[in-house]
Amino acid sequence: MISKAVTIINAFFTKGDTRSINAKKNIVSSFITKVASIGVSLLVVPLTIHYVNVVQYGIWLTLSSIIAWFNFFDIGFGHGLRNKFAESVAKGKYKLARIYVSTTYAILALISTGAIAIFFVLNHYLNWSRILNTPGNLNADLQLLALVVFVCFCIQFVLQLITIILTADQQPAKAAFFKLLGNVLSLLVIFILTKTTRGNLIALGLSLGAMPIMVLLASSSWFYSHEYKRYAPSFSYVRFKFSKDLLNLGGKFFIIQIGALVLFQTDNIIVTQVFGAKEVTTFNVAYKLFSVILMIFTIVSTPLWSAYTDAYARNDIVWIQRSLQKLQLFWIGIIFSSVLLLVVSPFVFHLWIGDSVSIPFSLSLAMVLYVITYTWQTIHVSLLNGIGKIKLQLYLVVASALVNIPLAFLLGKTIGLAGISLANSITFIGIGIVFFIQTRKIINNNAKGIWNA
Q1: Helix (H) / strand (E) containing 56
Q2: Are 39 and 295 in contact (CB under 8 A)?
Q3: Fewer CB within a 10 Å sphere, N or C end of the chain?
Q4: Which residues, at least 6 apart from 177, have a Cβ–Cβ distance to it below 8 Å?
């Protein structure tokens, strides 16, 4: 039996072309890493709530969501680098790949430096108590917390390019491991804080912000002096004229990112304005549990983006079609898994966080619908992003973003917290149908006009 199992496993990892084998290895490696990440993230929630309290944790979640908006200051250069790097390597243009890497580092370093300087000045005039709907006497502490989180974010903004390069080189498992290591270190620091200090939002912000920076700095130093030495960023390889190539595709991604910002990052703001900071914790605890399914799906879909880029550059449409079919079958498993998690969710919540937070079943149900609709449209978005056919996506995401906020407010006030998540699901259903049609047209080689842009 053991010998047969070993034979089956060995066949799984050796059967198929190089691209497929590499994807399978990364999927399995990412799965192991993500399982550990899920465990760590689930431990962080009750530990953090215990360290501060439910209201302060809600404040932290909302503030970190706002700061995360600045991730879009890369104007799409990150996604542009991902595609251009993969395309250059696939065609054996290694010097060009290094130019793209060096130029992107230079541009993002300049953007981050400027952003920190501007934020340092503006932060003195921002009323964070009003923004976060908290008591006015907390404003001074919140200004300091915002500055700490923003500076940490901007440093990560540049250093995280190593994870983009790894992903573009079809090694997302390694990128996921760095995130896991950063989370483990953050968890360790928070645990030490609970034993040595009283609840402090500033200390929480430092622990969650500084640890990932240390990991990214160490990993960048290692890879650029070993495996990726030929792509190591260098001042001598910075060519700002090549930023046009990155921005031509990246600019479209940037607009899509802005739309995605509204779809994914405004929920906490809407919740805190409609229901208060305490309910942000309720909303995010529910999302945290059901995002486990999203993480599993992401493990499988993430390696395919750059694999699609490679396959499309080599005109391997058959491989793309087979990969899509397998991903669609996997999505059916996602549906059953989501429903099963919904059934056991009351027990899981009780075991996980006890009675500190009460999660309405309607919110859990809305989260299941969110997971199902989000993963469906992601199946097709991964392909479209990988091959650079994103013009239609650009229009749809912007239009959806404009609709999502008023719809979330309306449904939130009408049916409660579940309405916020339901608004996103309605949006995903619409754009998912269009993306499905577009991918079929591209695969069948009859996409024309906006469908092929």
Answers
A1: helix 54-68
A2: no
A3: N
A4: 33
